[in-house]
Amino acid sequence: MNKSIIQVTAGRGPAECTRVVAKVVELMMKDARRQGLDIQVLESKKGDLKGTLLSAVLLIKEEKGAKQLDAFVKEWRGTVQWIAESPYRKFHKRKNWFVGVEVFDVKEQAKWDLKDVKLESCRASGPGGQHVNKVETAVRGTHLPSGIQVLAMDSRSQLQNKQLCLERLEAKFMSWQMEQLLARRQDQWQEHNELERGRAVKVITDKL
């Protein structure tokens, strides 16, 4: 299965750009699912205004033998130009807003090894009275090199909770592993923003 990490960022752009990040993430997720790709948000940083995002990190996967991922990445990677009047500044003349989309190959960037994971069973807590605490069905996973921990207690089945725990721990680890790299790339994209504006890979017009 091929996987990629996608970062969408407003760089140091104004509030309008953070709105565009949220809009682009929404469009990308719809587009990916329409093409049969599995996509999820690993993390996002909210902007100052409701419905805005400073940045978002997505994990996208394709099933073995599928070829949609390469085409999807090629379509979105780069600078996205969003044409719309500002919803925040009524008489603002500017109508072009830019966000950056970068893609990273998971195999190259994230080194995930189950040997680095410690799993422990524990009693679940929460609603359900005494019954929920009778059996240790919850599972706590720790990624030893980073210290990242995840607790799964969704199911009464310890086996299912173990699987959920591993999936969530891997996703959290990848997000952590990519954080510094993404931060550097965001700064680099912002530095080159002025040059990239003339070479947008995608132009979207929003009539609000």
Q: Can you tell me about this structure?
A:
This protein has 208 residues and is α+β, with helices and mostly antiparallel strands. Strand 2 and strand 3 form a beta hairpin. The model has no long low-confidence stretch (mean pLDDT 83). It folds into 2 domains: 136 residues, Alpha-Beta Plaits; 57 residues, Double Stranded RNA Binding Domain (2-Layer Sandwich). The strands form 2 sheets. Strands 2-3-1-5-4-9 form a 6-stranded mixed β-sheet, sandwiched between helices. Strands 6-7-8 form a 3-stranded antiparallel β-sheet. It contains 5 helices and 9 strands. Helices cover 34% and strands 31% of the residues.
What assembly state would you assign to the polypeptide chains in this entry?
single chain
The main pleated sheet reads as:
6 strands, mixed
What sort of overall outline do the alpha carbons produce when their principal axes are compared? elongated
Q: Do you know the CATH architecture of the largest domain? A: 2-Layer Sandwich
Domain count: the total is: 2
User: Which percent range describes the beta-strand content?
Assistant: 25-35%
Compute the separation of the termini in Å. Answer: 38 Å
Put simply, the count of helices is: 5
Following the backbone from N to C, one meets helices and strands in this order, namely EHEEHEEHEEEHHE
> Which regions are unreliable across 5 or more consecutive residues at pLDDT < 50?
none
Helix content: 25-40%
- Which class do the helix and strand fractions yield? alpha+beta
Number of strands: 9
Neighbour order of strands in the largest sheet:
2-3-1-5-4-9
